[in-house]
Amino acid sequence: MQLMEKTPVEESVPQSGSSTGDLVEQVREETIQALIKTGIIRDAEGEGFRNYLVAQSIGVGDILPVMAQLRGIDELEQATAVAQWGRQIGPAIKKRYSLIPFAGKLLGSVSLFDSHPEIKEAAASVKCPLIFAEDADVIGFGTINPVAATKLGEHVADLIQNRSGVRPYLSLFLLELGSWETICGRQFA
Q1: How many domains does the chain have?
Q2: Residue 61: its pLDDT value, please?
Q3: Dist. CA 89–CA 71, nearest whole Å
Q4: Residue 10 in domain
Q5: What is the mean pLDDT of the chain?
Q6: Region Disordered: start and end of each range (predicted)?
Q7: CA of 118: how far to CAs of 10, 27, 76, 108, in Å?
Q8: Strand 130-134 and strand 138-143: pairing?
Q9: CA-to-CA distance for 18 and 178, rounded, in angstroms?
Q10: Could you tell me if residue 170 is inside a domain?
């Protein structure tokens, strides 16, 4: 009996561990660059902030809330600051995101995560919760960091296309900090 060789599609499917690590690193670096490009942080602050994030093992999904804390922004004002930074970052990476203020009340289906655990792993690694999914054809993710959602969207589209040959339609949305925390807690806790 002859062993079956892997098809080119099977060989091109990214391995879960390394691709998630690459995704996290890309999000960290591109978020810091977008923060510098928009003037939210100075170039000189970028390296120190990067080193702090790595040294403290802070996940890339938490970059904007951590920055608000480090700047001493009052807890009640952090949501406003994070939302403002998210709106500023979007155009810097040539993406516009719609805000869904009621997203925390949505009870989105996470069946996509059940059938694609590697997508859940990637989404959790950058803290971009699933807002909706129609099988693997139409998918919506939420974020407070447009860089994270953009990179996750590219990663997920590649995973699904490599597996099924069909590139999904992706929608990416900005979330308010409270909604984001609620949905991340439900999906990734």
Answers
A1: 1
A2: 86
A3: 18
A4: no
A5: 85
A6: 1-23
A7: 15, 17, 35, 18
A8: antiparallel
A9: 31
A10: yes
**Residues listed for the chain:** 189
In the chain, what is the straight-line distance between the N-terminal and C-terminal CA atoms, in Å? Answer: 46
Residue-range definition of the domain harbouring residue 189: 15-189
Structure tokens, 181? 């925390």
Query: Which pLDDT tens digit goes with each residue over 139-174?
Result: 999 999 999 999 999 999 999 999 999 999 999 999
φ/ψ of residue 177, rounded to 5: -55, -45
Contact at 8 Å (CB) between 146 and 86? yes
Q: What is the pLDDT of residues 60-90, one digit of tens each?
A: 888 999 999 999 999 999 999 999 999 999 8
> What are the structure tokens assigned to 47, written together?
């390296």
Collapsing DSSP to helix, strand or coil, 60 comes out as: helix
- Between CA 24 and CA 145, with CA 17 as vertex, the angle to 5 degrees is 20
**Residue recorded with tokens 């390394």:** 18
| 1 located within any domain | no
